[in-house]
Design goal:
This protein is an alpha/beta fold and 476 residues long. The chain contains 19 helices and 5 strands. The longest helix is centred in the middle third of the chain and has 22 residues, at 277-298. The protein is globular and about 75 Å long.
């Protein structure tokens, strides 16, 4: 593909930002005519199609990215189909001599990238990849024996012992003009609306739009708000679902609208002398995200196969349609679980403390296969992440790495009384209970019939005992 008019091609994936984008910055430094492309790949082998909530987010994130590129003299080309074919076609159309991307870590994605890199090498195209979305790439963190880590604490200790992470890159000061196609005009781009990423008939996204601001600017504001406010009380605030005590950066990190390097450096900038203990806890949550990707890298089937193979013998129970719907719709009769599931449906997000309780209720009190919950969260969470979502579900189920002990069964009543004692979170998302006082709201069945609110789906003591018996059989 040698050309008398060399050009560059940047392929963006889960890195929808200008700031700290190594592939984009390196391409800008080359100074060649530059094409920036995003490919919606739902056809390559093994690529997991996005859920409904992430499709909504992607639409708005791409719109924001396109506007940012246009403001910097460039444009975003959209293509749909198998990425290998789309990138080869666009490289040919623009006579690209250089191809840039930031690395991905799932096996299907790595397989696609490796095939394109091989094709590039055979066709005179220089393909370069960069570290952009993980602080510590999975193959760089190894035990003393040379294997992957299976427990978080030593994993994170090893990461932190490896030295300071790199400085984030500033956005390119200027982007080269877009490359032109064979006809002399800009490469053809598909219309974002034609991808049908937004829900309709019905449009259930009103609560998402009221809650979130997808895009790089929204990510920056979210980071600033967190560091200016809840960060120094994160250790306690993160457990209270009724307050803004968490960063809510997860969907922005999932789509790469902010890089973990930028988050890390902003923490250092705000606390140059000593990082407060609570902020250190937040950094360890970034570490948990890294650990989940570490697990997925060495266990590509994390979303479908038990990490601990002995769980292949576990006797999960089949839920009937009404039981599953009760959990999905927040109609279990346990306000803490129901508030979380309704928050998820309304906003595309659920507080992490409540996520654990809702997940535990499904896999332990109802003894449903964790994969059922993982699939529901994949479809409804705006931060549904290919590594964190299955790793966290397996953690709750006990089938994963560094798993929650089998006997740890989150009691939704105890959790509710401890972390939402006044019931403000419950009243917000379960309005049927609004008239109950601060004690009765946690156990509404004790207050008699509450119009519009169901009785408990299962009894907590009995379902706990059933779960413990099932886990005990696994050890026999």
């Amino acid at each position: 593909m040698a050309s008398s008019h060399p050009t560059s091609l940047v392929w963006l994936r889960d890195d929808l930002r200008l700031d700290d984008n190594p592939a984009l910055s390196e391409a800008a430094e080359f100074g060649l005519p530059l094409t920036v492309v995003y490919v919606l790949d739902e056809a390559s082998d093994g690529i997991r199609p996005l859920g409904g909530a992430t499709r909504w987010w992607l639409h708005h994130s791409l719109a924001a990215l396109a506007a940012a590129l246009e403001a910097n003299g460039s444009c975003l080309v959209l293509r749909r189909g198998p990425a290998a074919e789309a990138i080869k076609d666009l490289a040919t159309e623009t006579s690209a001599t250089h191809l840039f991307w930031n690395r991905r870590y799932g096996l299907p994605e790595r397989t696609v990238d490796a095939a394109i890199k091989e094709w590039a090498g055979n066709n005179g195209v220089q393909a370069s990849s960069y570290q952009a979305n993980l602080l510590f790439e999975p193959w760089t963190v190894r035990t003393g024996a040379g294997g992957p880590y299976k427990v978080f604490t030593p994993f994170w200790r090893s990461c932190l012992a490896g030295g300071e992470v790199r400085e984030p890159l500033e956005p390119p000061r200027q982007l080269p003009s877009p490359a032109t196609g064979e006809s002399g005009g800009l490469p053809k781009s598909e219309d974002l609306h034609s991808w049908d990423l937004l829900p309709h008939s019905p449009d259930w996204s009103g609560g998402l739009a009221d809650t979130w601001e997808p895009g790089e600017e929204g990510a920056g504001r979210r980071l600033d708000d967190f560091l200016d406010g809840p960060a120094e009380d994160y250790g306690t605030g993160r457990n209270v679902p009724g307050v803004e005590g968490t960063s809510r950066l997860s969907p922005h990190l999932r789509f790469g609208e902010v890089s973990p390097f930028r988050v890390w450096r902003e923490i250092r900038r705000r606390f140059p002398h000593k990082i407060p203990a609570d902020v250190g806890i937040f950094r360890s949550e970034l570490g948990w995200r890294e650990f989940c990707w570490h697990l997925l890298y060495t266990n590509p089937e994390l979303a479908t196969r038990n990490y601990r193979p002995e769980f292949d013998r576990f006797q999960w129970q089949s839920l009937n349609r009404s039981e599953l719907a009760a959990w999905q719709q927040g109609r279990t009769g346990y306000p803490f679980v129901d508030a979380g599931m309704r928050q998820l449906w309304q906003t595309g997000w659920m507080h992490n403390r409540v996520r654990m309780a809702a997940a535990s209720f499904l896999v332990k009190n109802l003894l449903a296969d964790w994969r059922i919950g993982e699939e529901w969260f994949w479809d409804t969470l705006v931060d549904a992440d290919a590594a964190s979502n299955p790793a966290n579900w397996q953690w709750v189920a006990g089938s994963g790495a560094d798993a929650s002990p089998y006997y740890r069964i989150f009691n939704p009543v105890t959790q509710s009384k401890k972390f939402d004692s006044a019931g403000g979170y419950l009243r917000r998302f379960v309005p049927e209970l609004a008239d109950l006082d601060g004690k009765a709201i946690h156990e509404p069945w004790k207050a008699g019939d509450v119009p519009g609110y169901p009785d408990p789906l299962v009894g907590l003591p009995e379902s706990r005992e059933r779960a413990l018996e099932a886990y005990a059989r696994l050890k026999d």
